[in-house]
Design brief:
It is a multi-pass membrane protein. By secondary structure, the chain is an all-alpha fold. It has four helices and no strands.
């Protein structure tokens, strides 16, 4: 169950972050409300996940997988370029999360 909380935290964080640009510096009400709600929900679920999952592992997964998802969303829906350098960097991030899980989960 803690990994379900962690996946929900990642999804909520990705939701909040994907709305961040549309808030226009927190000047637009509904995108701002959605963005902040996403972050609140993300931290609520993350706080439940870290009751069981080590904080370092949970945070690595939360930030790393969230980063990968946001880069994909940016490329697919926000017109951001997906360069070889970004793909290489994402590979490093995901590799780091995997290594942390392999070394810290046992």
């Amino acid at each position: 169950m803690p990994y379900v909380f962690l996946l929900a935290a990642i999804a909520a964080e990705v939701f909040g972050t994907s709305l961040l640009k549309s808030t226009e510096g927190f000047t637009r009400l509904w995108p701002t409300v959605g963005c902040l709600a996403g972050y609140v929900v993300a931290f609520l679920f993350l706080s439940q996940a870290v009751k069981t999952v080590p904080v370092g592992i949970a945070y690595a997964m939360w930030s790393g997988l969230g980063t990968a998802a946001i880069v994909a969303i940016g490329a697919a829906f926000l017109g951001e370029p997906l360069t070889a350098t970004k793909i290489f960097g994402l590979g490093l991030v995901v590799s780091g999360v995997v290594v942390l899980n392999l070394g810290g989960a046992h």
